[in-house]
Design a protein that fits this description.
495 residues, alpha/beta, Alkaline Phosphatase, subunit A, two-stranded antiparallel ribbon, globular
């Protein structure tokens, strides 16, 4: 049947059969002003919240069988390929389909017998025996903003197939929910977004912050980590401010706090207290400062990751996991379609390839992705971190099975439209099977022919891997309960 998608404008039709170089003072100033929500990503003091015992209780009470992979991960790295990777040119090529379906690229054999990838991913093909590809992802959102929200919260936006701005009424992103139900205290931040925020194409997409939760669960947001030696400016130790002086300043702040306790009911006052506390935790922690110092890595390894935004973001993700951060989200590309503004700058390219898809993938997107993502998997594995780190790479949807030129977009050669009826993701580590393929699409990569999975199931898999019952609840500032996820763990990943 035909499914019609609307965006307060022209009707969309899809055929389917089923449904900053800153000083330490500046670092503190940014946080105290509260503008760190997107610049440095720091939030405020939290009102009462739920805890891990509540999240785990429903699992015990209902006597459900513990799903495979439960509690296997100490950390999660979510690599978000904004714009929508084409499944046909990457994880699910169709070499026997007609030319206008299969496209210009050929496919290559991988290290897993019978499994083929697109020809421009040779390193990832060689490492295919270390991860699982899921080829039957599907949902019903067809625009970048709301689909980004779906990918990063596991829930449909109220305005499906649209480009809404972030709102205080949004559901929180994964890292915010994690911090609300369980704080680990292994690192000053339980969640970090690297190379963010994700833009659509030049405005902030929803689904990346605390939403309706208190500010102090907001993930730390770090921008371009390739542009400076230390990924988070303002953290370098200074001789004129030894630890004793920093502790003295903290003591002075706590003295002032005793005189403002009568303001405890004021949310802005609590926010300020939390901003001070988190900033001081970061500044006073050598362990935290060292995690953001990419210069401590060997030049050869930095070169393997790639001396660009995406590659160095993946390297920082590995360092943050090593330092104890439970949830790291890497925005592989900070814009879903920055090439419209500068087609010569590979750093700004996104996966939204309506036109010129084969040029963009061959010359800009796939060489970097193949090298950097492969290095991340390899590096984690060699260090023994992959066994305790769940790694997921996904976009908000895939690309259409037919190649065509779109008149309303820049470019002179054909590309592929948005396509959410089927797409592929990659999952590795923390007990996930190696060298497996889960699910299948039809002969044109147009829709699944096996069990479908959605972003909500990815969310459930992540929380389950971290030892949190995905069917439990978190609570907002008014103590209202909300389901942690709307999906089920993808048990097929572990069989």
């Amino acid at each position: 049947m035909l499914r019609f998608e609307h965006d307060d404008g022209p009707r969309r039709v899809m055929t389917t059969r089923r449904n900053c170089a800153a000083s330490r003072r500046e670092f503190l100033r940014i946080n105290l002003l509260g503008s760190g929500l997107w610049g440095a990503g720091l939030g405020g003091w939290c009102s009462p919240r739920s805890d891990a015992s509540e999240a785990a209780a429903p699992l015990a009470e209902s006597r459900q069988v513990t799903p495979p992979g439960f509690g296997r991960a100490k950390s999660v790295i979510l690599v978000y390929a904004s714009g929508g990777q084409s499944q046909l040119e990457t994880w699910d090529p169709k070499p026997h389909a007609p030319l206008d379906v299969r496209g210009e690229f050929s496919s290559i054999a991988t290290s897993v017998p019978g499994v083929h990838f697109g020809e421009h991913m040779p390193r990832l093909a060689a490492l295919a025996d270390r991860y699982t590809v899921v080829r039957s992802m599907a949902h019903e959102d067809l625009d970048h903003g709301s689909a980004c929200y779906l990918a990063l919260t596991g829930r449909y936006h109220a305005r499906r197939t649209s480009n809404p701005p972030p709102s205080p009424n949004d559901f929180p992103t994964y890292g915010a929910v994690l911090k609300q139900v369980r704080r680990t205290h292994r690192f000053p931040y339980d969640a970090v977004h690297v190379n963010g925020p994700a833009l659509v194409p030049f405005t902030t997409a929803p689904g990346q912050n605390n939403g309706f939760l208190p500010r102090d669960v907001d993930p730390l947001v770090v921008g371009d980590v390739a542009s400076q030696p230390v990924a988070l400016p303002g953290l370098s130790a200074q001789a004129e401010l030894p630890a004793v002086r920093l502790r003295s300043r903290q003591s002075l702040k706590e003295t002032f706090d005793t005189y403002r306790r009568h303001l405890a009911a004021d949310q802005r006052s609590r926010d300020l207290s939390g901003l001070y506390r988190q900033a001081l935790d970061v500044l006073s922690s050598p362990h935290c400062r060292d995690a953001f110092d990419l210069t401590s890595e060997s030049p050869a390894l930095r070169d393997r990751y790639g001396r660009h935004r995406s590659g160095q973001a993946c390297l920082l993700a590995r360092r943050l996991v090593e330092a104890g951060t439970p949830m790291v989200t890497v925005m592989w590309n900070h814009s879903n379609r920055g090439q419209d503004r500068d087609p010569t700058d590979t750093d700004v390219y996104g996966w939204d390839t309506h036109n010129d898809i084969f040029y963009a993938l061959r010359e800009h997107l796939l060489p970097r992705f193949d090298a950097s993502f492969a290095t991340l998997i390899e590096d984690l594995d060699q260090r023994g971190l992959l066994d305790e780190t769940l790694v997921i790479c996904l976009g908000e949807f895939g690309r259409a099975p037919r190649v065509a030129l779109e008149k309303n977009f820049a470019g002179s050669s054909p590309g592929r439209k948005h396509w959410s009826a089927v797409y592929s993701i990659v999952v590795a580590g923390a007990g996930v099977g190696r060298g497996h393929v889960v699910g299948a699409s039809d002969r044109h990569a147009a829709e699944p022919v096996t069990k479908r999975f959605g972003p909500w199931d990815v969310a459930a898999t992540m929380f389950s891997a971290l030892g949190i019952n995905p069917h439990g609840h978190f609570r907002d500032g008014l103590q209202r309960p909300f389901p942690i996820t709307m999906g089920n763990p993808m048990t097929e990943l572990y069989t």
